[in-house]
Amino acid sequence: MAVFTPVGEADAQALLSRLGLGALQGLKGIQAGIENSNFFVDAEGGRFVLTVFERLTHDQLPFYLGLMQHLARKGLPVPAPAVDAQGNTLFSLHGKPAALVSRLNGGHQLAPDVFHCEQLGQTLARMHRAVSDFALHQPNLRGLPWRQATASALLPKLSADEAELLRDEMHFQLELAASGSHQELPTGAVHADLFRDNAMFEGLPGREQLSGVFDFYFAGVDTFLFDLAVCLNDWCIDLPTGRLEEARASALVAAYETERPLSATEHRLLPALMRAAALRFWLSRLDDWHRPREAELLKPHDPRHFERVLRQRRALAWHAL
Ligand SMILES: Nc1ncnc2c1ncn2[C@@H]1O[C@H](COP(=O)(O)OP(=O)(O)OP(=O)(O)O)[C@@H](O)[C@H]1O
Ligand SMILES: N[C@@H](CCO)C(=O)O
Fold it and tell me: Domain Aminoglycoside phosphotransferase, which positions (predicted)?
């Protein structure tokens, strides 16, 4: 279960009253997710999701909530944070930061086909275009400095095979980041964790429409290409092997390019960025596996999945920087 902080009806009602959203009609803890405590909140004023943030701080959250607000105002299908009379979107519950955002309709598409990948690709590119005038800045907190620190802490705990892979990939990624080509990649505020379980689809089977994307709490300023690579590594692979499925991958990229064509450098660096994206999630999963939080009641995600994805991407990627 993923309710680390219990929230009662009185807590929820107090927040709804502050936000002018009327009487509470339903409150239910959400089991999915491993980062935060989440609740479905139904009220006179609409259907919402209440999140109590377990690891993120009051300082970090304005960026995430501001990004969701910015994208929602531009018509992108993302949860819109509820705002009080003073313009606040960030509140406190039991001493922890909390926010209420609109609830998306639909459900996850956990076995996406070409049709779903096209919709995701197009929406991702629209998100990338929409942040050109987003004023807040926060780096990707799972970027290179975090990867280096996490790799150093993990290395003594890994098998010889894992350690060799990690050392070699870190070396490659440091070279990549220092290269002139990488430095010319366009950047902006990106989602950075847009896996298939962070999107909703609704409609009849075979004709589902993307109803929205959510969970912006790993967002940060990074290259748009990294964001695209995260999606390709999750939406367009054969899950058991980590192999990239050509039809879904090319459909996702082609749909992306209808909204935001990639430059020649972006095309060239995409395989290397898919390695970066695989490394980022291999590291976070290894970190959760070897250093679980005390209150963690869940089985952490399997790190070996992203080790397989990384090995697959390394077999594909060429090294020209
Ligand atoms: N705005 C939303 N609209 C509809 N459902 C949502 C929304 N936000 C969250 N959910 C539901 O709550 C579940 C848990 O949310 P989420 O995936 O963000 O968990 P988390 O613990 O915050 O993060 P993580 O995915 O990183 O573990 C989702 O799978 C989804 O079903
Ligand atoms: N998407 C991450 C979980 C954190 O959101 C993973 O699959 O490892």
Answer: 27-261
